[in-house]
Amino acid sequence: MKTILKIAIPVAAILMLLLLGCKKENSSFSKGKQQLKVYLTDNPVNFQAVNINIQKVEVKIEVDSSGFEREFWETLRIRPGFYNILNFRNGVDTLLAQGFVTTGEIKKLRITLGSGNTVVVDNVTYQLTLKKPEVIIDIDDISEINSASFKIHIDFDACGSIIRISNNQFELQPCIRTFDNDHDGRIEGKVLPKDAKAIVSVTANGQTLIALPDDGDGEFKIRGIKAGSVNLEINATAGGYRDTVIKNIQVGNREVKLGTILLKK
């Protein structure tokens, strides 16, 4: 019987992954083309590594020409290979794919994964069985940079994507969402002491977003939060520190800075 891999926290874990490595491009736009960039981001969980082999990224374009609609897939430019999505957390992100595509409405994103995906748990590396290499994502949020350039942020849910079949067998069932980094809200702050090994989470619109405070200074950031009132939960997992909840944080298309949160025993 398949069960979702248990993490040592009483909340659902969601992973996001982006790497901050954008290079400036020559912006020579071609007629009938629009530029698209896809960013991958990480909202972390308590795995030591999750190595995902990304081979191809495509977008589905819908074009209305003389009253007739047609849809087709176009391929973006990427660096194919393995991405350890746990390297990127607390607001760190990377440019995953980019390119010029036919001008039209961007409807879907398709990511093709290769073999050799792995997860590291308790210093042991396990192979991830992948039964369905293609992941198709509906585009709910897309940011316009200018009239000919757009960007998409995607959120890879590690906990929901990795299924423990047995003690030594794991399966990868990719679960990915999109969010709009320019219009959705962000919450950042600092949790101390670090001995509490705190896990910070926000639940909004039925989704739980998680951050692990930095080991050094305790800083955290959660992105992709839809506008509204949310509660921030801080779960202390060590040292006998008490959990803390900060209620009714008003989130819009801005960054909410909470400052330092000091946990008590």
Describe what this molecule looks like in 3D.
The structure is a single chain. The chain is an all-beta fold and 265 residues long. The chain folds into 2 domains: 8-21 and 30-179; 185-262, Sandwich (Immunoglobulin-like), CATH 2.60.40. The protein has 1 helix and 23 strands. The protein has one helix at 158-161; strands spanning 3-4, 33-41, 49-65, 68-75, 77-78, 81-84, 93-102, 105-113, 118-121, 124-130, 134-138, 143-146, 149-156, 162-166, 169-172, 176-179, 185-192, 198-204, 207-211, 219-225, 228-236, 244-251, 255-262. Strands 1, 3, 4, 6, 8, 9, 10, 11, 14 and 15 form a 10-stranded mixed beta sheet that branches. Strand 3 (49-65) and strand 4 form a beta hairpin. It is globular. The chain starts with a strand and ends with a strand. Mean pLDDT is 79; it is low at 1-29.
Q: Short description, anyone?
A:
By secondary structure, this protein is mainly β.
Distance between the termini: 39 Å
Count of structural domains: 2
**Average pLDDT level:** 79
Roughly how much helix do the residues carry, as a percent range? Answer: under 10%
Strand content: over 45%
Rg value: 19 Å
Number of helices, where a helix is a run of at least 4 consecutive DSSP H or I residues: 1
Structural class: mainly beta
What are the secondary-structure elements, in order, as H or E? EEEEEEEEEEEEEHEEEEEEEEEE
The beta-strand count equals 23
Contiguous uncertain segments of 5+ residues:
1-29
For the largest beta-sheet, the strand count, sense and barrel status come to: 10 strands, mixed
Shape: globular
